[in-house]
């Protein structure tokens, strides 16, 4: 367990072998945080303090930047939402659950994700010696270096390539993805 003093968004976990999932803790305005979860060509952003979730589909078989809903219904992901809790999962064994009452989110990975992910949550291979791996594959025992290495926002040392969204009838969704100050794709 460690305290994140950073005001930057950080990569918590990503499947680097099959790109089955990506989970990012976003820093929002006014000391608020959101959880960005990408699975099955669908993105869900969970705002625990606001007790809401927004979902988008970016499947190549459908019109790009299609908004699905304000809630995680009608999705390729399994989802359940109660008054104080939301759970999303996929058929490949990735599950994210947030309890709004306690401001607590958990990520559960099935066995076939063993050793294929990395991020602030570690390598998921039951080896204590490599939990503090940084993106370039080396290791550190310095908490500041470790957390900074997994930053994905504007304070990141690694520039991310943006995929332009084609001009369609869904221009407002594209604006949300690429122009909003809190967007990871900006």
UniProtKB/TrEMBL annotation:
It comes from the Eukaryota. This is APLP protein. InterPro entries: VWF_type-D. Transmembrane segments: none annotated. The gene is Aplp_0. Residues 1-166 form the VWFD domain. PANTHER family: AGAP008810-PA, VITELLOGENIN DOMAIN-CONTAINING PROTEIN. Pfam families: VWD (PF00094).
């Amino acid at each position: 367990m460690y305290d994140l003093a950073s005001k930057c968004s950080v990569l918590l976990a990503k499947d680097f072998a099959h790109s089955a999932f990506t989970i990012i803790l976003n820093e929002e305005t006014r000391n608020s945080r959101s959880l960005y979860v990408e699975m099955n060509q669908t993105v869900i952003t969970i705002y625990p303090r606001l007790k809401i979730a927004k979902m988008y589909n970016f499947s190549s078989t459908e019109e790009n930047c299609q908004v699905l809903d304000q809630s995680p219904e009608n999705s390729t992901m399994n989802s359940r939402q109660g008054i104080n809790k939301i759970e999303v999962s996929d058929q490949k064994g990735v599950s994210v659950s947030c309890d709004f009452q306690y401001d607590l989110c958990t990520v559960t990975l099935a066995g076939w994700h063993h050793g294929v992910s990395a991020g602030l949550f570690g390598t998921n291979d039951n080896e204590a010696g490599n939990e503090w791996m940084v993106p370039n594959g080396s290791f550190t025992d310095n908490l500041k270096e470790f957390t900074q290495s997994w930053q994905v926002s504007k304070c990141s040392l690694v520039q991310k390539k943006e995929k332009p969204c084609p001009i369609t009838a869904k221009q407002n969704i594209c604006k949300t993805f690429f122009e909003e100050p809190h967007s990871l794709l900006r």
